[in-house]
Amino acid sequence: MSSELPLDGIKVLDVSAVLAAPVAATMLGDFGADVVKVEQPGTGDFTRRHASRPGGRSLQWAQEGRNKRSVTLNLRDPRGRDVLMSMLPHFDVVVTNYRPPTLRRWGMSADKMREVNDRLIVLYITGYGLTGPYADRGAFDRVASAFAGLTYVSGYPESPPVRTGYALIDYMTAYVGAYAVMLALYNRDARGGPGQVIDLALYEAGFRASEDALLQFSVNGVVRERVGNRNLHVVPADDFETADGRRVAFHAGTDSLFTRLVAAMNRPDLTEDTRFATYKARVENQEDLYAVLQEWACKYAAEDLVALLVEYDIPASLVMSIADIAENCHYRERGTFVAADDPDFGRLLLTAPLPRLSETPGRISHLGPKLGEHNREIYQGLLGMTEVEIADLTRDGVI
């Protein structure tokens, strides 16, 4: 296993907030990129908001600010924007997510930044992209989910749509953004290409997850609607309540899986029942089938039901809470989360760097730093500012 990480030597300037863009930078930092986070003096990044004092370290910041260096810089001040521009020649990648009107007002357009450094890769994550009639609008995860069509199809048909329980689109977009940066770096460094602009709208990763919904609409005029927990064309596959009041998810939506499920249930009669004998019949009579399965499932405690299904090689899991996850042997032994000691919070459990690479796995070198912890290191050491210049900018609230 190599001691070097894949992105050692790559320098990333994170000029972003809330949440997809900074997480994309975190993912690059997990694999060795030197990420410098630009934060607002006094308050810092949005993920610090639950800290005990303004600009302090929160639990969320400890994770999403990991492997980053922190500098403070007020981009609302022209002098702050001048400092930002002076930083660009020292970086390979800039990650930002300000709205296009703000980017124009602050001189952070792609043309302006690449005039300073033509090898620069600039990742713009904006609500609706840099082009199109909605380009100047803002968006957050909830709004992007609604615009992407994910909210519309989530929930039960008799109830209003619901968003996902986590900021799913933010994290999906972060992965796509980090992937895009890697494509651009490969093109620049392995193939001798130029720097380039990555234009990624927040809603687009969510829309890409919409399966064949657009195809079905364009060909057949079918609008995907809410169907609750089920896929009407994959039967049986659902979550079932158990005797101890918990829920178990399992999927037996193929002929071979259904045969194994029938064996697990000790109900050979189900394969002889004309309502369930074929895949087509099971789809057409799914309400009857689900009633039979629920009646069977509720005779077992959740753990016992999962064990039985796994014994018959049927994909199944408890519907896990975060408390379940924290105690789960597979999560722990596989290292999907890791433990770290923090000076403010003590022992923490954090998501591990993903994906897992055999020879150059990501690592967490440090958790989210103090606000402005690296000001002197960057402004004096990298940019060559004098003590007097730093003192003046600090006094005026620029850094």
What would the keywords be for this entry?
6-stranded parallel β-sheet, 399 residues, alpha/beta, 3-stranded antiparallel β-sheet
Outline, from the CA principal axes?
Answer: elongated
Low-confidence stretches: none
Helix content: 25-40%
Percentage of residues in DSSP E strands: 5-15%
Order of helices and strands: EHEHEHEHHEHHEHHEEHHHHHEHHEEHH
Q: What structural class do you assign from the helix and strand content?
A: alpha/beta
Task: Report the average pLDDT across residues.
Answer: 97
Q: If you compute it from the alpha carbons, what radius of gyration comes out, rounded to the nearest whole angstrom?
A: 25 Å
Number of beta strands: 11
Strand order, main sheet: write it out.
Answer: 3-2-1-4-5-6
Largest sheet: 6 strands, parallel
| Termini gap | 40 Å
Count of helical stretches? 18
What does this 3D model show about the protein?
α1 crosses α7 (168-189) and α7 packs across α8. This protein has 399 residues and is of the alpha/beta class. The model has no long low-confidence stretch (mean pLDDT 97). 39% of the residues lie in helices and 14% in strands. The radius of gyration is 25 Å and the shape is elongated. The protein has helices at 20-30, 59-64, 78-87, 100-105, 110-116, 141-148, 168-189, 202-208, 213-220, 255-265, 269-272, 279-284, 286-297, 302-311, 322-327, 329-334, 375-382, 387-395; strands at 11-15, 34-39, 68-72, 93-96, 121-126, 197-201, 237-241, 247-251, 316-318, 337-342, 346-351. It starts with 10 loop residues before the first strand and ends with a helix.
Task: Write a short abstract of this structure.
The chain is of the alpha/beta class. Helices cover 39% and strands 14% of the residues.
